[in-house]
Specification:
mainly beta, Immunoglobulin-like, extended, 998 residues, lipoprotein
């Protein structure tokens, strides 16, 4: 045998679990304490606070707490107690319990420390001074009234009462209350300011409020203060540190006469952003959402007519630390090395320290190093296990990040580095058999062949990393090899064995097929019978999913063949096909190039090189020939007036496959054309190219005249001429119009009129001298901006005629039924008097209607009678008749009237019965009685489904027996008013029966 194979035997890995069956887990905080500000005033009612702390872990964590770095002992009788991880402090003492608290959570993996949380007490004491002296100033002088807030803890809000509560001082450009000092500033005192002023201080935490003693403000009697320049009394510090995202308020106010105006600006000249509302920035400049770009030097300017004064201060940006790279839990082998990176942003730049199990990490060992936030430990030992915390901090805060280090010592284990159970090598080739067990610490690796220790030689060598290398392999090297790994914790081994290599017997090839055909791509192999084969096909390096791809691909190979068939091949199927064969121990592949011949691809770069009024010269570039030479090109065109693409005539008549230019002829002038080209080869015609850019042929004089020239009608003294407009594609250029020529029949000279609109289809010539219904010779020509075109053929058109001049006579009207009236008249003679008659118009209206709302009915030709349908029964109608022609209607005849007959019976025949007698059917029904307002019943009509009707004046009829189909019968009464309501349908079957009723 010419190959070597190795068989691997794996050990199982068993994870450690606690006794309760859950997976072991180091502690992780799910809830950490937050700072608390406690109002002292509530101590009498409730003297208890709770700091929250919660961590998950297995085993469950045990909790401890520190106050100002010293551990607290929640013992019996102590005012500290634990509920889970929460610290409850009862019987609060503001002197003993104020400070910084931290929670510690520990389990068998180590200890972690929470962030710091402070407990402070807010309070506000009363003012100590009970009386203040008067403040005496001149009118026009500025004054400052001091507040002097009492001892307190927590933020304060200041206001001032003027004389008596609830009258408070309102701030404006002249008066200002500083929320930094509480002082009241009046830029220029007026007589209305005289009175008592009381400072009111409110603690925002405790919500308590205290008032200072009143301070009287009086005016001096030694004159009025003159004007003087601004003096800034309220200033902001030279440097103000502002946290990222916070809101900063700068105060600035000046005394002066006149009252100074306060403006703000940045010293660097950069304008304030939109978030700063300058309309409110008088004594206070407020900058919300403070960011790095807001930092810089700010200046307050106080100005009046006597001068100007300024004050400057710097806003310094700071940001507490924010971790951007945190250490992650890690598991290492003994003697490995560890490097943890910890990075944070912040201003000032954060410093770093590391903690292990809740204590600062201070190791004298050289193998433990901390530098710029990174912790590195070399040659790990079991003593290095535990919980580590990176703490990044600056003067504005600290952030903590936790990570667990596990150090493990394990016996040799191959479960994480499983080897192939077989390894193949050709005779004379080289093979490397890896042996990479997991073991800690690293031990000794040896090899056996069969049951004997492996002897090394110049061809067989065990490398320093434990792998086995065999050079120039022979058949004798085949066999079972075992890798043995050993350290002080145990021994493990792994085996390998031998098999034949898999070989593809099909040779690489190139297949050539035509679109629409089917082809088989072969993939034949020889292989070790004990190994199972898996065939996988790729098309242009993309996996083929059989059953998809539109059903084109189908597997047709047997056990040792992976052949596939491609049915109905398309151009897109051309490319590289790869057959990959896999077994458990090796893999091999072969490629087949498939060439698909098909119709050419679309030509490209279609250009109109030159265009005249009827020709266009085209050029193009060939598209892909798809492996079959192009034999001919076809050119198509379309216009806004064509139905899609149409083939065009070219020069040469047949455009060969070697040509890339042609001239299109027989085009219409002044029409926008698009052209496209299609290529053909022996297989077929391909897809068309993209259309060329639109190109308009040049204009020329028109050649086509309007069709269907006719006319006539119109008003008196008019000659109306009509025609069908020439289509736009036949107008041959811009400025298209018509020339209308006409003359009386028999005349020699022509009169002409230009109609400049291409869409116009009518021209009216009006002249009082035109006699009614006179014949004219008419012809219509065409023109455009390029010149005049021809005239169409001459046709005869009559001028407008006069309406008939006489009224019909002998008008008679007769009621035929309740809904019909017959009207007759004497026809008017028709002669050549220009007042011909085309027909007659009847107008009729009922007694309850007006004549101007009459209904109209027309006849055609020389008809002398007609019937009006749809009138109402028992109603009087008035009727007049007049003749008409194209000019209108003539005078009306004498009006006649007629009353329609009563309506027909409304009740249908009932109790219809039938019976057979010999070869007849006898029908009987009950007589219908007309109502008082209905015409009398004079008979009945019996109809079958066949087109025949019988009439009778009795209430019975005899019918022949139905021999081939059923009878469907209806019966209607009738009288002089017409037919009445029908009975229900009666069905008489072909088989005669006894009396039946319906």
């Amino acid at each position: 045998r010419n190959v070597i194979a190795l068989q691997l035997c794996l050990l199982s890995f068993i994870p450690l679990v606690p006794r309760n069956g859950g997976v072991l887990q180091s502690p992780v905080f799910t809830k950490q304490p937050g700072s608390i500000v406690y109002p002292v005033e509530t101590l009498e009612r409730n003297r208890e606070v709770v700091f929250s702390c919660e961590a998950k872990g297995s085993p469950p964590p045990i909790y401890r707490w520190k106050l100002n770095g010293t551990e607290i002992s929640p013992k019996s009788g102590s005012h500290y107690s634990l509920s889970g991880g929460n610290l409850r402090i009862s019987h609060l003492n503001k002197d003993q319990d104020a400070g910084t608290y931290q929670c510690l959570a520990s389990n068998s993996f180590g200890t972690i420390v929470s962030r710091e949380a402070s407990l402070t007490f807010a309070y506000l004491e009363n003012f100590k001074t009970h009386r203040r002296g008067s403040v005496s100033v001149r009118e026009g002088q500025g004054v400052v009234l001091l507040c002097g807030p009492p001892p307190h803890s927590g933020d304060l809000v200041f206001s001032w009462i003027f004389n008596e509560y609830p009258t408070f001082v309102k701030q404006d450009t002249r008066r200002f209350i500083s929320q930094e000092t509480g002082n009241l500033y009046i830029a220029k005192v007026e007589p209305s300011d005289v009175g008592n002023y009381t400072c009111v201080v409110t603690n925002t935490v405790t919500k308590t409020r205290v008032q200072g003693p009143p301070a009287p403000l009086v005016l001096r009697s030694d004159g009025v203060m003159g004007e003087y320049e601004p003096k800034i009394e309220v200033q902001f510090p030279e440097v103000v540190h502002v946290a990222k995202g916070s809101t900063v308020k700068l105060e600035c106010f000046a005394l002066g006469n006149p009252v100074p105006s306060i403006t703000w600006r940045k010293v660097d000249g950069v304008p304030f952003p939109r978030k700063v509302d300058m309309r409110k920035a008088s004594g206070v400049l407020e900058i919300p959402y403070f960011q790095q770009e807001d930092a810089g030097m700010y200046e307050c300017v106080a100005e009046n007519s006597r001068g100007m004064n300024t004050v400057k201060g710097k806003l310094s940006f700071y940001a507490p630390p924010h971790l951007i790279e945190k250490p992650q839990d890690v598991q290492k082998l003994i003697d490995d090395s560890l490097v943890w990176e910890c990075k944070a942003t912040g201003k000032p730049k954060p410093s770093y320290r590391w903690m292990k199990n809740g204590e600062n990490l201070e190791s004298a060992e050289e193998r433990v190093q901390v530098a710029n936030g990174a912790l590195s430990i070399s040659r790990l030992t079991l003593a290095d296990m535990g919980m580590y915390q990176c703490v990044a901090g600056n003067k504005h805060g600290e952030v903590y990040s936790n990570a667990e280090l596990r150090v493990i010592a394990v016996a040799p284990d191959f479960s994480h580095n499983q080897l192939r159970s077989q390894t193949l090598v050709k005779v004379g080739g080289d093979v490397l058999i890896e042996c990479k067990p997991k073991m800690s610490p690293w031990g000794v690796i040896s090899w056996r062949k069969g049951s004997e220790p492996l002897r090394e030689s110049n061809r067989v060598s065990i490398l320093n990393n434990g792998n086995l290398r065999i050079w120039n392999a022979t058949k004798s090297d085949a066999g079972l090899y075992t890798c043995v790994a050993r350290n002080q914790f145990g021994v493990a081994n792994v085996n390998v064995c031998v098999s034949e290599p898999t070989i593809i017997t099909t040779l690489p090839s190139t297949l050539d097929v035509t679109v629409g055909e089917s082809v088989v791509l072969p993939c034949q192999v020889s292989h070790d019978p004990s190994l199972e084969l898996k065939f996988t096909w790729f098309f242009n390096e993309q996996l083929i999913h059989f059953g998809s791809h539109g059903g084109f691909f189908e597997k047709v190979g047997g056990h040792s063949a992976g052949d596939i068939m491609i049915r109905n091949i398309q151009l897109r199927h051309a490319g590289k096909y790869t057959c990959a064969v896999q077994t458990k121990v090796d893999s091999i592949s072969i490629a087949v190039d498939l060439v698909v011949r098909g119709p050419p691809g679309p030509p490209t770069s279609i250009h109109v090189e030159e265009i005249t009024d009827t020709t266009a010269s085209l050029s193009w570039r060939p598209g892909p020939d798809n492996h079959s030479p192009i034999t001919a090109y076809t050119i198509q065109a379309r216009t806004p007036f064509s139905l899609g693409w149409q083939a065009v005539t070219t020069v040469p008549d047949v455009v060969g496959g070697h040509r890339l230019t042609a001239t299109v002829i027989d085009l219409s002038p002044w029409v926008e054309y698009e052209f496209r080209v299609l290529a053909s080869n022996t297989i077929g015609t391909g897809e068309p190219s993209k259309p060329s850019k639109q190109a308009r042929t040049k204009g020329t004089s028109p050649k086509v005249t309007p069709a269907n020239v006719s006319g006539g009608g119109g008003s008196r003294s008019e000659l109306v001429i009509t025609w069908e407009p020439v289509p736009e594609e036949l107008q041959n250029g811009p400025g298209f119009g018509y020339v209308v020529a006409f003359r009386p029949r028999g005349a020699t000279g022509w009169m002409q009129a230009a109609v400049p609109s291409a869409e116009t289809s009518r021209y009216v010539f009006k002249n009082e001298s035109i006699q009614p219904f006179s014949p004219f010779h008419v012809k219509v020509g065409v023109y455009n901006n390029e010149g005049e075109g021809p005239f169409g053929p001459v046709t005869t058109i009559y001028s407008a005629e006069e309406e008939p001049g006489r009224a019909p006579t002998r008008v008679r009207a007769k009621s035929l039924s309740a809904s019909e009236i017959e009207v007759s008249w004497k026809a008017l003679p028709w002669n050549a008097s220009k007042k011909r008659v085309l027909g007659y118009e009847l107008r009729y209206w009922s007694r309850s209607e007006r004549e101007d709302t009459a209904s109209v009915q027309r006849t055609v030709g020389n008809q002398t009678s007609t019937i009006i349908h749809g009138v109402k029964g028992s109603t009087t109608y008035y009727i007049s008749v007049r003749a008409y022609n194209t000019a209108g209607t003539g005078p009306p005849s004498t009006t006649v009237n007629v009353t329609t007959k009563k309506p027909p019976p409304s009740q249908p025949p009932v109790k219809v019965m039938w019976n057979t007698s010999n070869s007849k059917i006898i029908l009987n029904w009950e007589q219908v009685k007309a109502l008082e307002n209905e015409s009398e019943v004079t008979g009945y009509k019996v109809s079958t489904h066949r087109p025949n009707v019988m009439e009778t004046n009795t209430t019975s009829v005899e019918l022949a027996l139905p021999t081939d189909e059923d009878y469907i019968i209806q019966i209607k009464p009738f009288g002089e008013g017409g037919e009445g309501s029908s009975s229900r349908q009666i069905t008489i079957p072909r088989i005669p029966g006894q009396w039946r009723a319906s």
